[in-house]
């Protein structure tokens, strides 16, 4: 039922069957709030909008020259329509007045001459009052329905079912926090478009109501059968109450989840810190959360770059809350990406970092490693684009025994430390691919090591600075191509003869035979140390 009464609704009742629409027929769907008598040429001063103005016509007869202006002012004041006894003072209304009313969409209705004003006012007010009573009744029903749902601690599906009944609509609620869809109707009635769920596409096609508070969006109420149509204003009361109930429901779930996450975090922390000395304890605690830790596990650590630096820059409490809000968003985004690749991933959050325990589903380790690399790239790109922060990821080696997991965690942390030395930020580093860097990391800042680096490639560095050449870059590319000059030339997009010239130039500057194994080993180590110190 509509919660508004229109001019057309009033004219369609038996009491108004002899009324005649003279102008503004296309505007008969205007809402009516009240009815009043016009006894002065300026009633619009006291208008609140939506009124039917009832007139004997006398005011227009006396102020005939202002007829046009009065109609315009009535329209601008939000008056719904003019009900006038035309035959009392006119034979008919001027054609230019009727044309104006048609043009601006202002209904003018002829009242039968024999009808008393009370015969017009009473049935009209009766309809309006009855509707207002019905609106109040529906409002009370909405209020009591959602109050009962909240008091009785009903679940999300119950809230959606109740809202659907109140709206008399098939709806979908998509919980963006927990990434779950709730339908008010059976799945057999849901179209293929909603089964193959793509939220952004659906929001572009269907009308929806956002569930949330302040900046936080928790989900969307989507009308399953409304494409390109506005949600009726009448529905907003129910939707507003549903918003409150759903926010309370999701916050209750979040609170419960936070308690569970706290216990999970403590358990994961005990595992990776090697605080648990007996395997039986690990397995029993894992059973509580439904975790199977019997398969090989690899630890991934994801750390938000420079987050603590940004925290120290804060000047106010509001800035602190905003930064904390961003941190939670980043962590949620990272978790969702990892879960999309590894649904059963075990994880814990630690301030500005996350620790994931990743397990392959089968023995296809190449596919598993490929998924880790793909997820790492997606996490780095997504964090950079959505939040203007970067993350560095470290991945430890596989451990077959849960009691060895702390070693994979230490390897992941070491990978991040070495990665930040080599790449500063925004990198994904696998411990197994670090090679000699693992050894060099422990000594690269030693004075003797620095002297070794300088004596080995210092002349090339000096030459590049003095002559703006690229000999050091050339040497690095040659090493990356396993000392194959043809491949190195192709990598640098230079002619092979140019590469041979540079190779000879490097040899002359260093006064070394670059074909000797010992020389190549020395230069390889020196370049790796240089990469770690630059």
TrEMBL record:
Q: Residue limits of the GGDEF domain? A: 295-432
Q: Could you tell me the superkingdom of the organism this chain comes from?
A: Bacteria
UniProt-listed PROSITE patterns: GGDEF (PS50887)
**Gene3D superfamilies from the entry?**
PucR C-terminal helix-turn-helix domain (1.10.10.2840)
* Family named by the database record: Belongs to the CdaR family.
Q: Please identify the protein, giving its name as recorded.
A: Transcriptional regulator, CdaR
The record lists the organism as Clostridium carboxidivorans P7
């Amino acid at each position: 039922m509509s919660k508004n009464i229109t001019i057309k609704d009033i004219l369609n009742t038996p009491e108004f069957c002899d009324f005649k629409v003279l102008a503004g027929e296309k505007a008969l769907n205007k809402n009516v709030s009240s009815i009043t008598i016009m006894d002065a040429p300026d009633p619009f001063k006291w208008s609140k909008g939506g009124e039917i103005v009832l007139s004997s016509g006398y005011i227009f007869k006396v102020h005939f020259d202002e007829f046009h202006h009065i109609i315009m002012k009535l329209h601008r004041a939000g008056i719904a329509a003019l009900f006038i006894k035309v035959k009392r003072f006119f034979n008919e209304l001027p054609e230019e007045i009727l044309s104006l009313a048609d043009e601006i969409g202002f209904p003018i209705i002829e009242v039968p001459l024999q009808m008393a004003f009370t015969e017009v006012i009473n049935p009209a007010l009766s309809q309006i009052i009855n509707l207002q009573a019905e609106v109040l009744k529906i409002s009370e029903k909405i209020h009591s329905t959602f109050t009962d749902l909240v008091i009785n601690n009903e679940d999300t599906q119950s809230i959606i079912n109740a809202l659907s009944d109140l709206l008399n609509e098939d709806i979908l609620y998509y919980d963006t926090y927990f990434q779950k869809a709730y339908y008010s109707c059976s799945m057999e009635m849901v179209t293929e478009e909603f089964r193959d769920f793509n939220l952004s596409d659906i929001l572009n096609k269907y009308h929806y109501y956002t569930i949330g508070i302040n900046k936080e969006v928790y989900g969307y109420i989507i009308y399953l059968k409304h494409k390109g149509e506005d949600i009726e204003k009448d529905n907003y009361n129910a939707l507003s109450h549903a918003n409150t109930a759903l926010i309370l429901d999701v916050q209750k779930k979040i609170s419960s989840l936070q308690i569970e996450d706290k216990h999970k975090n403590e358990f994961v922390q005990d595992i990776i810190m090697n605080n648990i000395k007996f395997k039986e304890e690990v397995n029993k605690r894992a059973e509580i959360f439904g975790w199977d830790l019997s398969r090989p596990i690899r630890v991934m650590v994801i750390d938000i770059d420079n987050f603590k630096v940004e925290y120290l820059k804060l000047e106010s409490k509001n800035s602190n809350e905003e930064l904390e809000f961003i941190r939670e968003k980043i962590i949620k985004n990272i978790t969702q990406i990892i879960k999309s690749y590894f649904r059963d991933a075990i994880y814990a959050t630690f301030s500005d970092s996350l620790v994931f325990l990743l397990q392959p589903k089968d023995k296809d380790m190449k596919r598993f490693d490929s998924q880790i690399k793909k997820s790492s790239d997606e996490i780095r790109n997504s964090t950079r684009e959505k939040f203007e922060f970067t993350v560095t990821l470290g991945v430890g080696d596989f451990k077959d025994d849960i009691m060895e997991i702390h070693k994979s965690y230490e390897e992941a942390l070491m990978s991040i430390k070495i990665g930040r030395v080599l790449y500063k930020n925004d990198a994904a580093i696998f411990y197994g691919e670090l090679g000699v860097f693992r050894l060099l990391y422990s000594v690269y800042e030693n004075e003797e090591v620095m002297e070794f680096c300088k004596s080995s490639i210092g002349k090339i560095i000096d030459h590049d600075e003095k002559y703006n050449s690229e000999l050091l870059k050339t040497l690095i590319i040659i090493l990356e191509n396993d000392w194959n000059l043809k491949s190195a030339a192709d990598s640098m997009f230079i002619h092979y003869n140019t590469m041979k010239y540079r190779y000879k130039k490097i040899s002359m500057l260093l006064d070394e035979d670059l074909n000797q194994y010992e020389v190549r080993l020395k230069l390889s180590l020196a370049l790796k140390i240089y990469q770690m110190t630059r």
